[in-house]
Inverse folding.
């Protein structure tokens, strides 16, 4: 899942996933983040959501293992910021790559104020994708349970793409991996194929029963608070 995560295009293989996630993120943050507040993005990568956060008036701080963020996550999982310094923490597609959930969630709880909010997304179903490691996939109940065990009360959980659309996007990703290697025309073929299969997946997701979609999501978006 590369490219501009905050502004995906229909010819991108991850268009429906990133569009759905960005919409949920924007809806949640627009009513829960404001001027003078601070959000820490734990595992920020190239910080695709900085603009979304700063548009709300909040301060954005990106944290990651390398030097790509504003602050560095140390090898023991600690961030060089004081206790209870954040009104919100953002964790987008990071949790599945975390080996020690206790250390990661513990650091988030340390950074959050007692009334702070955790905004988190992770995979229910997806291909193996180590960055640099890949450890888990969740059911809806399993994700809620794991967050509870690690000190969070889930207030809301939403699904991004149900099982019918997910299978189509998984096939698209596989085709793109192979066809994208063709010289000269590979990327163009992948773009056209993505347009077609994204349209198909959109229809499939629209006809998927809501409960099936929730129980078998590709991505879950969670809003939680420290217990």
């Amino acid at each position: 899942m590369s490219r501009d995560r905050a502004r995906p295009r229909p010819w991108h293989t991850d268009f429906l996933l990133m569009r759905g996630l960005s919409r949920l993120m924007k809806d949640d943050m627009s009513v829960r983040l404001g001027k003078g507040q601070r959000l820490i993005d734990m595992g920020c990568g190239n910080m695709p959501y900085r603009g979304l956060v700063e548009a709300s008036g909040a301060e954005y701080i990106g944290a990651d293992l390398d030097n790509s963020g504003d602050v560095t996550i140390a090898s023991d999982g600690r961030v060089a910021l004081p206790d209870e310094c954040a009104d919100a923490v953002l964790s987008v597609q990071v949790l599945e790559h975390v080996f020690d959930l206790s250390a990661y969630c513990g650091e988030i709880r340390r950074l959050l104020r007692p009334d702070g909010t955790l905004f988190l997304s992770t995979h229910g179903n997806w291909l193996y994708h180590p960055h640099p490691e890949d450890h888990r996939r969740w059911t809806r109940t399993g994700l809620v349970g794991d967050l509870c065990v690690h000190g969070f009360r889930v207030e809301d959980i939403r699904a991004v793409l149900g099982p019918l659309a997910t299978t189509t996007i998984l096939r698209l990703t596989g085709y793109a991996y192979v066809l994208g290697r063709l010289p000269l025309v590979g990327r163009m073929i992948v773009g056209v194929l993505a347009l077609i299969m994204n349209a198909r997946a959109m229809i499939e997701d629209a006809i998927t029963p809501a409960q099936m979609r929730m129980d078998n999501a590709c991505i879950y978006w969670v809003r939680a608070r420290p217990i």
